Input
Amino acid sequence: MNDKEILPIILCGGSGTRLWPISRQSFPKQFLSFNNQNRNTLLQNTIQRTNKLKNIVSPIFICNEEHRFIVAEQIREINVIANSIILEPFGKNTAPAIAIAALKALENKKDRNLLVLSSDHQIEDEDKFIDIIKRGLEYSSQGKLVTFGINPNSAETGFGYIKSKKPLYTDQIEGSNIVAFIEKPDLRTAKKFIKDKRFTWNSGIFLFKASSILKELEKYYPQLINLCKESLHGNINDMDFTRLNREPYSNCPNISIDNAVMEKTKEGIVLPLDVGWKDIGSWEAIWEISKKDSKGNVLQGNIIANDIKNCYLRSEKRLIAGIGLKDLLVIDSSDAILVANKNNSQQIKGIVEKLQNDKSKYGLINQKVHRPWGHYESLVRDEKWLVKIINVKIGHKLSLQKHNHRSEHWIVVSGTAKIEIEGKDIILEENESCYIPLGSKHRLSNFGNEDLKIIEIQSGDYIGEDDIFRFDDNYGRMS
Output
């Protein structure tokens, strides 16, 4: 085996609450596109920047069960075949996720270099990024645990810091032993750090042999390794996905790889990473990386602007008209609008926490909901009725199902629908419709040569999404 083979480990968890209302728990930031010059999502860009590396092998993805079909669809769009898509039944921070990935990587007896990447970072200079990763290989191939530090240009209190034994200089890509990891400091401490070349921001990017990280985890957190081994024992391969054993994984500690290993090990090395790195964690960060007009504005969507400066205006559908604005964020999604001072964008997380504590749908679910067969969008609703538009991809079908509390009326907007009702098939073309009585076993399929769009009208005493009993499903979703 080539000692320089690289297996990317793409961490796809996280909810991206500070990018509300576009990013929500059901469809968080890593699956969205924020670059007005690049239609790819953050996840897709993360994968594609690794393609420039030699000796790269198919990546392992780790994501929440809820997002499995989103990950599968987005990697399919860029023609990537996964080594594995591992489904976490619970979010448990980076140490359990990395331990699971390392154990999985060693199943085929190949001890590759694992390049651990978060799926929500922006890298401006990708060629230099590749060069520094290659330099890191020289250390990881010797059994070192490599991380990459960002030379700070401001006193940030939202990042963790790494203290190295020697000063790090961006024009000399030399590694240094790690002295300490420092959690998010106060402003006074951060101002001291940026004057000392031994301190860098913690990028959250790692490079190490699978055996090397497992050896150190065994040394410092043996109970974590045992639980992860149990979680993988008897795992279920569900189509393209690997489902973990829920019970042992639920007992895994919620701990980062920094706390579990990197701040304890004597094998840690940090390299300077001066590549235009951005942690896409706020709307202000999105504004910073986006192409701006002559007055510092970023305008996306249906926008009319007059006399505005240093603003970020984004509309998903509706018209936004802005007059006499400065340093503002105006984000219009299909069901919520955010208006905030750009300098206060970190406070959005508090708004989302309140919405979630109030069990408000606005904090969790996007109006547009993705499914393995396509997506649907709720247009208007009342207590006992709901109107949706449903988009079914070519060759896909919904589950064979019934509802105990609602009936449905389907109207084909475009495409050709095959509809099964109580064992009988109906073919509907554009502008044709049918009625699905309450309790009827039914299924919707698209066997045409274009996406199928239908209007669905639900009515009944309960119209929740959990009123589905499935008899058969192509995607393994059964009641």
